[in-house]
Amino acid sequence: TATSSGAARRPTSALPDRPEERVKVFVRIRPTKAEGETGGAVRAKSGSKGLVIFREHANIPASEFEFDKVLGPSASQSDVYHAAVKPIVEDVLNGYNGTLMAYGQTGAGKTYSLSSIAADAIGMIPRAAAEVFSHIEQDGGHEYSVYMSYVQLYMELIQDLLRPESENLQIRENEGGVFVGGVHQQEVQNITQCLHLLSLGDRNRTTAFTALNAHSSRSHAVVMLTVIKRRSVSGTGEAEIQRVKVGKLFLVDLAGSERLKKSKSTGLRANEAKSINLSLTTLGMCINARADPNAAHVPFRDSKLTRLLQDSLGGNAKTSLLVAACDAAEHVDETLQSLQFGLRAMCVRTQAVVNERVDYKTLHAEMIAALENQDRKSSL
Ligand code: ADP
Ligand code: MG
């Protein structure tokens, strides 16, 4: 694969006295749509961290929450990007793993926030990609390669949205962490190529669901950007020694968090409903377990999504959760559930380290040095 070719594996270098971090949680309240919704049930408090839920009697607050930041209905895509995503992209450019997950019920604004390509409302994925390339352009001191993958998870099957014929990819693990085996990793040189792949993936996603007569809000979509950053430290040609940092950015549009009804109208069989929900249910269980200092077992292995996001949930990654909420009174119960999910996620500690290794050329050079050393010893 793109990231592991020709490179000597080294243990990741932990920065020694880095303070432990946790998952950062941001809530975005989408403006109420005109038709048949009563807005005002969720209101941001002044000071930008607090949020109040109003029930039935519009002036009596029912519950209050506090998050890393609450972005109200008038917040722009740029506001969301600067609060929740930009710091992660900057870390990815320095060799950290980073994750942005969007959680919330269908219609709450996950896909709008992540994937919108409307000129006046560009979403987090295109913004993150654009930032990566503008950084690369300005950094003359490093060589960069960027690879993009795009998959979806539906009913515990991983489908490659850039190569839709690959519809049952498996999660694998090596010293470098967890990855999707055999996934297409397309090298991208600029934002135009990224946007092209995004729209290709989105089209494939829609096609897949139309064929299944299902709705894509039931699937998880994951865009992965791998940034490889090289710096020559000495030598030239064969003897050149390079330090290589690898940052992986996951941008995850989670399936709708609303409970699935096994009613006749949805036409779902019980096992189907269970399978559709499995990854999201397991995500909740993993977050609960990770948030509880006494929990002995975290069930990462119980679903594909949680295996893939294992690092993002308390391993080697910096993670932001964007809870998408709508302020409609009709959806207050689902919104409360989403906010509670967000609160638990705030207790998940992460421990990100720079993924740095020394390229093959170094190993080569070190081997020669070691052999020469041995020669010298044996000739003594
Ligand atoms: P989800 O992906 O969570 O199911 P969508 O992102 O598709 O929800 O949003 C549902 C609808 O609401 C879409 O028509 C979208 O354009 C609109 N929408 C969502 N968030 C906002 C926002 N912050 N501002 C304006 N329109 C929004
Ligand atoms: Mg969506």
Folded structure, characterized:
Helix 1 crosses helix 3. The chain is globular, with a radius of gyration of 23 Å. It is of the alpha+beta class and 380 residues long. The chain is built from 8 helices and 17 strands. Strand 10 and strand 11 form a beta hairpin. Bound molecules: adenosine-5'-diphosphate and magnesium ion.
Notable characteristics:
globular; 10-stranded mixed sheet; alpha+beta; single chain; binds magnesium ion; 32% helix; binds adenosine-5'-diphosphate
Give helix % range.
Answer: 25-40%
Which ions and ligands are bound to the chains? adenosine-5'-diphosphate, magnesium ion
Name the average pLDDT. 85
The percent range for strand residues is 25-35%
- One letter per element, helices H and strands E, the order comes to EEEEEEHEHHEEEEEHEEHHEHEEH
How would you characterize the largest beta sheet?
A: 10 strands, mixed
Can you tell me the overall shape? Answer: globular
- Low-pLDDT segments: 1-19
How many β-strands, per DSSP? Answer: 17
**What is the number of helical segments per DSSP (H or I, 4+ residues)?**
8
Give the end-to-end Cα distance, rounded to a whole number of Å.
Answer: 44 Å
**Structural class from helices and strands?**
alpha+beta
C-alpha-based Rg, rounded: 23 Å
